[in-house]
Amino acid sequence: MEAFFPKKIITMNFKYVIIFFGYCFFLSCAEFPYFNQSLKDDGSLSFLVIGDWGRKGLYNQSELAIQMGEIGEKLKIDFVISSGDNFYEDGLNGVNDPTFQHSFTNIYKAPSLQKTWYNVLGNHDYRGDVEAQLSPILREKDKKWFCLRSYVLHAEIVDFFFIDTTPFVNDYFTNPKEHTYDWRGVLPKDKYLNDQLKDLDLALSKSTAKWKIVIGHHTIKSAGHHGIIMELAQQLVPILEEHDVDFYINGHDHCLQRIGSIDSKLEFLTSGGGSKAWRGDVKGWNQEELKFYYDGQGFMSIELNQKEVEFVYYDVFGNVLHKFSVSKDSCVSSQ
Question: Which residues span the membrane (predicted)?
Fold first, then answer.
């Protein structure tokens, strides 16, 4: 794995520069850590997005991994994004939990997938030892693993903002049922959430990238099982719209979908079909907004350059389910 370092300094007043297993990131008093990703020689990026996957190969996780490897090779992907719920049912129980190998290392073995996996945490991850997934020890075990609570990936023409959405959901605190959540590093909750919203607002305001993409585990708009997460709709969406974010990408619902906005350009894209899917679990939705819904397993590829972004949704056999492209001037969708 090549360490990547900035070709130019990002315009911010940094207080610290930290080297973390070959990665260079920058911290100031109240900002997310920043990482730099190089573009291809032609100025483009390509990557895959998958969520809700970690089931030791079951529920077609292994079959999906094969297709991801083939598509990844075809597109010469630069990295993979995971939209959370990385290990079922209850995260990892520590850095030496064999689930890490059985659900990750031993599954995603294709040569094209041996790139950095940028992960966010999901609610199932919070039911285990959260610190284990954040530990650099896992990166020693598998160099493609990378996980922090919230951070920014900067790639000149695009900025990716990874957000820790689980602590926003009040029900996990007030009605955890039989589950135990690991809230170390989160409490007091109000301060954690306020800091995260403030830091996101600051990071977005400083971004000069052509494209802005926010990644979180939980749904904001979804025709699937979890529907609208009101805490995120109320607290996060105004910030995304204010700063002209192009896409919010999530998992949580075990499906693939694309929902637009009538009153803004913001689109909500779900890639949560990494293993167990929920057949038939779909709600009604405004057809002006709902562009695509698939209640099976699958993943998404994204190719991005200065002028446009192309999205492709695939099923477990590698078949193309939905394809669309977006430019700053127009949007074209085909299926």
Answer: 16-35
Q: Answer yes or no: are the C-beta atoms of 33 and 148 closer than 8 Å.
A: yes
Structure tokens at 162: 């990874």
Inter-residue contact 225 to 258 (CB < 8 Å): no
pLDDT in single tens digits along all 335 residues of the chain: 333 333 333 333 333 444 444 444 444 445 899 999 999 999 999 999 999 999 999 999 999 999 999 999 999 999 999 999 999 999 999 999 999 999 999 999 999 999 999 999 999 999 999 999 999 999 999 999 999 999 999 999 999 999 999 999 999 999 999 999 999 999 999 999 999 999 999 999 999 999 999 999 999 999 999 999 999 999 999 999 999 999 999 999 999 999 999 989 999 999 999 999 988 989 889 999 999 999 999 999 999 999 999 999 999 999 999 999 999 765 555 44
| Per-position DSSP letters for 56-117, written without gaps between them | TTTTTHHHHHHHHHHHHHHHT-SEEEE-S--STTT--SSTT-THHIIIIITT--SGGG-S-E
Q: Which CATH superfamily is domain 34-334 in?
A: Metallo-dependent phosphatases (3.60.21.10)
CB–CB of 144/116 below 8 Å?
Answer: yes
The one-letter amino acid at 268: F
Say if residues 254 and 122 touch (Cβ distance below 8 Å). Answer: no
Classify each residue of 79-110 as buried b or exposed e, where b means 16 or more C-beta atoms within 10 Å of its C-beta: bbbbbbbbbbebbbeebebebbeebbeebbeb
Q: Is 59 left (phi over 0), alpha (psi -120 to 50) or beta?
A: left
Show me where the domains of the chain are located: 34-334
Q: For residue 81, which phi and psi values (nearest 5 degrees)?
A: -110, 130
Catalytic residue among 217, 218, 226, 322: 226
> Three-class SS of residue 34?
strand
Which residues, 6+ apart, have CB-to-CB distance to 169 below 8 Å? 123, 218, 229, 231
List Cα–Cα distances, 58 to 92, 107, 192, 240, 264, in angstroms. 17, 10, 35, 36, 39
Q: Is 225 an active-site residue?
A: no
